Amino acid sequence: GQIQAGYTPVLDCHTAHIACKFTELLSKVDRRSGKALDEAPKFVKSGDSCVARLAPQKPMCVEAFSDYAPLGRFAVRDMRQTVAVG
């Protein structure tokens, strides 16, 4: 699989399970150095790392990872399979 703008999986954050749409992929990132490899990629494949903008379908509260790590983590799932984490 691959993830692209318009994809709408379920985002699990702490006890919330809310459908979120990938509105845009901002950049593809090198997993080791953290530097941007590609600005505004069309899609990312399995094993890639990226910075993306997501829009929840319902109001959702998420803490900043730097403020409180346990509430700043999330998993993106589609059909009960994990497709991304952050």
What would you say about this model in short?
The chain is mainly beta and 86 residues long. The protein has 1 helix and 8 strands; from the N terminus they run ββββββαββ. The chain has one helix at residues 69-72; strands at 2-4, 10-13, 16-29, 36-39, 43-45, 49-56, 75-78, 81-85.
| Strand segment count | 8
Termini gap: 18 Å
Range of strand content = over 45%
Helix and strand sequence: EEEEEEHEE
Average pLDDT value? 92
Shape: globular
Largest sheet: 6 strands, antiparallel
Helix run count: 1
Proportion in helices? under 10%
Structural class: mainly beta
Low-confidence stretches: none
Keywords for this structure?
globular; mainly beta; 52% strand; 5% helix; 86 residues; 8 strands; six-stranded antiparallel β-sheet; two-stranded antiparallel ribbon
Describe this protein's structure.
The chain has 86 residues and is mainly β. 5% of the residues lie in helices and 52% in strands. It has one helix and eight strands; from the N terminus they run E-E-E-E-E-E-H-E-E. It has one helix at residues 69-72; strands at residues 2-4, 10-13, 16-29, 36-39, 43-45, 49-56, 75-78, 81-85. Strands 2, 3, 4, 6, 7 and 8 form a six-stranded antiparallel beta sheet that branches. A two-stranded antiparallel sheet has the order 1-5. Strand 3 (16-29) and strand 4 form a beta hairpin. The longest helix has 4 residues, at 69-72. The protein is globular, with a radius of gyration of 13 Å.
